[in-house]
């Protein structure tokens, strides 16, 4: 048995019992068991994480998908690896993950932990864990009532990084806010060396338009989306760092997948959208930093399963339903760009909630470019969620045909409309708690086999 104090032993046992009860009775619950453990031993994370090589994934968008991609690459490589695959990325949820995988009588061997971390919680994790790698995906406005503007989010992340100066940072080089940080850590960057389109003009509502040093507006050799791209400042000379890992060519974009060349390796990403190419590029970069082989990376990314509302594909009475989590303007616009890759008719559902986890201020939907939907052949526009009428107003102002609007406040009626849709393909774009609750309803009806 591993050497561990009586207090820590009680903490782990109490948490494991709570995990069992929440899984069997509540069919979920990944935060409360960690709270139970921490109530008994506030330092328990340091003890249960011992022996793991840890990768922490943080940032505004793409954390859950990127974490899943990295985890699957490690599994494909035959490594012992754990992860918080439900997206429970707050301090107690991460404690739960390590305790759930803790074995009292198993001798430690080389294992990895790929852990998604909420931006504001990074400092609580690095207080107890010295990770091999911390990666930051991007920084966008998100839940302004909780995070504030992007510079506030960056400062919260840096608080966590400053605790662990020996950790390697793998950062999105196309994210100007992550360039030239005043930190001692070894840092490598990934990004796009190729353009997606001819646009070099930043969106009016982009989140980081001005140089963080001299406040001059950025210029771009190319823009991928929002403020991400090959930026440079004509005022002070600040520019994108050299990229160690890069998308050098985009070979194909479809509604279901993308094929790109990362460095010299051609990879098909089984999830569509530029943002998922970024997620795959991040996973590629971390895998290479930890010396995993190209075949494992390539095979894993082309067989990556979407789950838990991240382009999750479902069959509902022979309707092909894809659930896409949307939570801020940058991510929502990327989801709409994915819809724009369709040439055939389809239906779309827009679910908007304003719970704490969604952001209680829904004014951000006015920064989403719903106007681009004009070009699409959308037969039915389904609208639901706690703030469904706010969404209906936004879509009407965007110029969508209100005669196609179908407003359903409860999930049973919404699901019936989906089942009776005139189209076989239905996209469901939902904010976080709307996605969670809709999935719970679908699980209760047998359309989803695994809730968490």
Automatic annotation (TrEMBL):
GO terms for molecular function: ligase activity. It catalyses: beta-D-GlcNAc-(1->4)-Mur2Ac(oyl-L-Ala-gamma-D-O-P-Glu-L-Lys-D-Ala-D-Ala)-di-trans,octa-cis-undecaprenyl diphosphate + NH4(+) = beta-D-GlcNAc-(1->4)-Mur2Ac(oyl-L-Ala-D-isoglutaminyl-L-Lys-D-Ala-D-Ala)-di-trans,octa-cis-undecaprenyl diphosphate + phosphate + H(+); beta-D-GlcNAc-(1->4)-Mur2Ac(oyl-L-Ala-gamma-D-Glu-L-Lys-D-Ala-D-Ala)-di-trans,octa-cis-undecaprenyl diphosphate + ATP = beta-D-GlcNAc-(1->4)-Mur2Ac(oyl-L-Ala-gamma-D-O-P-Glu-L-Lys-D-Ala-D-Ala)-di-trans,octa-cis-undecaprenyl diphosphate + ADP; beta-D-GlcNAc-(1->4)-Mur2Ac(oyl-L-Ala-gamma-D-Glu-L-Lys-D-Ala-D-Ala)-di-trans,octa-cis-undecaprenyl diphosphate + L-glutamine + ATP + H2O = beta-D-GlcNAc-(1->4)-Mur2Ac(oyl-L-Ala-D-isoglutaminyl-L-Lys-D-Ala-D-Ala)-di-trans,octa-cis-undecaprenyl diphosphate + L-glutamate + ADP + phosphate + H(+). InterPro entries: Lipid_II_synth_MurT, Mur-like_cat_sf, Mur_ligase_cen, MurT_C. The active site is at residue 361. Residues 57-231 form the Mur ligase central domain. It is an enzyme of class 6 (ligase). Zn(2+) binds at residues 211, 214, 233, 236. Keywords: ATP-binding, Cell shape, Cell wall biogenesis/degradation, Ligase, Metal-binding, Nucleotide-binding, Peptidoglycan synthesis, Zinc. The lineage of its organism: Bacteria, Bacillati, Bacillota, Clostridia, Eubacteriales. Forms a heterodimer with GatD. Belongs to the MurCDEF family. MurT subfamily. Gene3D superfamilies: Mur-like, catalytic domain. The lipid II isoglutaminyl synthase complex catalyzes the formation of alpha-D-isoglutamine in the cell wall lipid II stem peptide. The MurT subunit catalyzes the ATP-dependent amidation of D-glutamate residue of lipid II, converting it to an isoglutamine residue. This is Lipid II isoglutaminyl synthase (glutamine-hydrolyzing) subunit MurT. Pfam families: Mur_ligase_M (PF08245), MurT_C (PF08353). Pathway: Cell wall biogenesis; peptidoglycan biosynthesis. Its EC number is 6.3.5.13. Residues 325-435 form the Lipid II isoglutaminyl synthase (glutamine-hydrolyzing) subunit MurT C-terminal domain.
